[in-house]
């Protein structure tokens, strides 16, 4: 198999079924595909239990795949992991550190185990904002500080590829912003970042590309803008004095209109000026005409059908079974 | 080497290891204190009385031998009387005699060290597997056999070093107690050779316990798996199976028990009585006694190590890690 030259991560047809001693089986990955190109900040999204962490664990050699092909930095995984590990920094879920060690000692031991120069320890501690707390024991750290330490451990190797599973877990708003800035800095420095997160707004701000997984299969992938544009229905929010009359005019003109309490939502609008013109000609003056652009959250919920219902609590497996969705943004 | 040093740092910093070390020191301290409390330096009167008792015993033995030689044609039979000369420490009561008691004390020490090694080795890998520490390490060194092997090697080396130091201090402490408030006894070359052999075998047993604890915790992914294995074995096999063997009148049940081999390993050889061996024959011609030697014990230990430690490495190579 020949991988694209710029693919830092290439996954094709990845399958994994977890089996229990009692004969039970749960399909975690069902032919999952993903490509991360060099220099990307690539978001990896999916509902709980959709296979994100299993994918990352399989890629990093912690879980054995039943089938499929993977490569990291152009080398086959997991066979070549020992060779590429020095170039890959990773945190998977919330890594546990030894509570009795200080933050600095924790990183020193990892640096020693990985053959990394000891000078890197203080550099990465400063980079993640732990320089002044590096002498404290890890058990005294907050969840957010432990998360920063985890990111520091991943940065220790000066990686070409950084794989971060929920890096904003436990961080306060300031910490989330710092993490965002850090990822931008890393990306600007040429490091490829694959980040999984549930904070979709963050992903939208940080990432230039995204892959969405549901029930172990890819449901969308591509540049964030392209994924979002695939769900742009040309909708506009229209505020006008007489909503019922305006709705009648627009409906008669063949546009799908949804009436809300204080505004209309009009879909399939090719030219917003046409709405102003039509309503103005009938003496209705538009006070608001705003395009409704989809955000990543709405696209994600639509793709995975993970939006909660009005009264019935959604179960973790109540997500969409991927079908042949063509967003026109598949690689 | 870097990985081994890092692992050693992690081992040394574990609170459980510190706690177990303190308990070990406390156990040895209590033993030494009890010995000191139960011993006293023999007074001149006690010493003279013991010397008198020795002279009486020697005279009695000599009389018995002469009587024996008058009746027996075989001089070797009568030599049995003089195989062990009466010693002065045999007649000193309430006095710690190093040469007589140190072997049992060493067995006690080895039992504690083996328990320490088992628990420390099991928790060293069990806690890492449970907490995700192993996962974190494998992200840095994605070489499972190397990582697990380094962990095992580190804990074995640490346990051996601590046990060797503890043995020297322990024996030295009791020798000092004997010098100060007891009697060293007859410490000839043979005594020291036997003592060194006992300690060496004991250290082997300690390493065996550590490896089994490590392997069982790895197989079960948890420290508790190793404890469960030991508890289950002790209750189901050493107690339960022994009762069943008794009921079905199975011959030589002791040869199926690990404790028999542990005893044989430490003593060099142990004899067991097979009560069903001579039921159909004339007693004097039938050998109802059988021996288990340290060689048998070594073979049993090797098989157990291959099954549990080998199995742990084999499964860890392919296991999905949480």
Automatic annotation (TrEMBL), chain A:
Q: Which GO terms describe its molecular function?
A: ATP binding; ATP hydrolysis activity
A Pfam family annotated for this UniProt entry: ABC_tran
**Region described as Disordered: spans on this chain:** 310-331
Q: Does the keyword Transport apply?
A: yes
The alphabetized UniProt keywords are: ATP-binding, Nucleotide-binding, Transport
**Stretches assigned to the ABC transporter domain:** 9-240
The UniProt family comment states: Belongs to the ABC transporter superfamily.
Can you say what this protein is called?
ABC transporter ATP-binding protein
The source organism is Phytohabitans suffuscus
TrEMBL record, chain B:
At the top level, the lineage of the source is Bacteria
* Gene Ontology molecular-function annotations: ABC-type transporter activity
Record's keyword terms, sorted: Membrane, Transmembrane, Transmembrane helix
CC per GO annotation: plasma membrane
Protein name per UniProt:
ABC transporter permease
Task: Give the stretches traversing the membrane.
Answer: 105-131, 152-178, 198-217, 224-245, 294-316
Q: What is the lineage of its organism?
A: Bacteria, Bacillati, Actinomycetota, Actinomycetes, Micromonosporales
Membrane keyword on record: yes
